[in-house]
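QUALITY CONTROL LOG
STEP: pairwise intake check
CHECKER ROLE: data steward
CRITERIA: each record must contain a sequence immediately followed by its structure tokens, with no blank fields

ENTRY 1 OF 2
RESULT FIELD BELOW
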Amino acid sequence: MEESTESMMNEQQFKYFAFISYNSNDTEWGKRVQRKLEHYRMPATMCNERGWKRKPIRPVFFAPTDIQPGGLSEELQERLKASRNLIVICSPNSAASEWVGKEIEFFHGLGRTQNIHFFIVDGTPHSGNPDTECFNPVVDKLELPEILGANIHEKVYAWPWLNKERAYVQLVSKLLGVEFDAIWKRHKRLLIRRIIAWVLGALLMIGTLVAVWVYNQPFDATVNLNEASVPNEQLPPLHDAIITLTLDNETKADTLVSMNDKGLFANIPHRFLEKQVKMSFTAPDFMPVDTTLTLTRDVALNIYRNPAVYGDVHFSLWNPETETFIPNTKVEVEGHPAVSDANGKVVLFIPLEAQRKTYKVKAPFPLYNDMLSMPCGENDVVEKM
């Protein structure tokens, strides 16, 4: 507890936890380091032991957010004095920067040499080549202790992003004076959880987008005709059938040439699937259909023959010699008995299952035309021979 109390008292002497020294060409790196440090959350147990806040590395001074960059003005010197640590963004840019060198030199003059930390973003330490050297010459001039610094390009792992994360944690451990492994293992676990969560979220998002895409894809609906009336092979088959589908204000139609043919309505907007729509059907010899149904990819539509077309028999018995109609006479139409009325008219209905395209007519006397073709009407006559 004595150590943590002393640490808190020392921190309270400074306005800033750290001052970031950088070259303007490395501005983005400076901002990134500031953001990483100020938002880094330490383990709760370690914070309790040392009396830290969960985000102990704040505030971090970064010149563009507070003052205009320039020489070591009095204001800039005051910022350095008010900073407990100095973080140098190291690269060939900062190695050639006069102002970075002056900031290091000034901070060293404050007697805080041990609080100078290097974060290498480019170049090679102690290469001796101005094109690749990442340490400012002031480091050698002041004979600062040999410091390798946290290097984002150190190839510890196969993934560059993980090496960058390791460098951030190295810098954090140096700033807080804790063992690197004490927080790196936890940091890796958090990274793994974050990656897993990100991957799962991405997969969920992709799945959702695919589902939405599939859901909104147009679909084709086929219509299968089902003759719900009593089948009769003696009658003409279905032909010239027209099926009409009404969707809001749009109408689609398809023509079928046989009962085995299927109606096809292509590219229907997905919003109509499983919705109530209007459908109609017309065909010779069949009853018209005008109905509302639930639209699916496969629609079964019941149709019925019109029993009146081949079932309603109407004709008159005619005697050409007397040129008169023959009343009250018993006849048979394909075996079905009937009687002409007082005006010689014969009216008969034949059930659907017994219907034909033509009917043989029998009477008590010979007939000129004893075959009655359907459909027939009141103007049809059957003549006595």
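ENTRY 2 OF 2
RESULT FIELD BELOW
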Amino acid sequence: MPYLIDGHNLIAKLPDIDLADPNDEAKLVTKLKGLVAKKRGRMQCTVIFDCGVPGGYSAMSTKSVQVIFAAMRHSDADHLLKLHISRTRDPKNWTVVSSDQAVLDCARAHKMKWLTSAEFVDKFAGESPAEDAPGEEVDIQISAEEVEEWMDLFGDGESRSGPSEMADST
């Protein structure tokens, strides 16, 4: 089931992420990726945040967790959420997560399911891999696309076209 999530509203309801943290969005996205992995493909999320520079889809996005920032000067998350709601082709399959009454009203008007941010937190409490019991093995499936993305970001010590440049300097 796909979820359309008001990112900062959800962060405000989480006990372990603070809106004042400069990495709050990345921490939420990490939590959502863990939750989606635990659901083994039965869940997808689109999370929308305010104040992106320049705005649009984020590099934090994966196939299962789409991350979108509203452009700082041109829009806000609520506007983008309502736009996504109105443009969704299969609204009955989606669930909107927000604490904003106007966003929830828009979801209801388009026959979408909805949860407040607090209800979403309650529904999935204890399902994040970070909250599993110590020593409990978690089977997280990582796609080839995600591995390639990580290799592009962090590398493996060698360039894709051949041996490391470090070897040439000796």
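INTAKE CHECK: passed for both entries
DESCRIPTIVE NOTE, ENTRY 2: The domain at 2-134 is CATH 3.40.50 (Rossmann fold).
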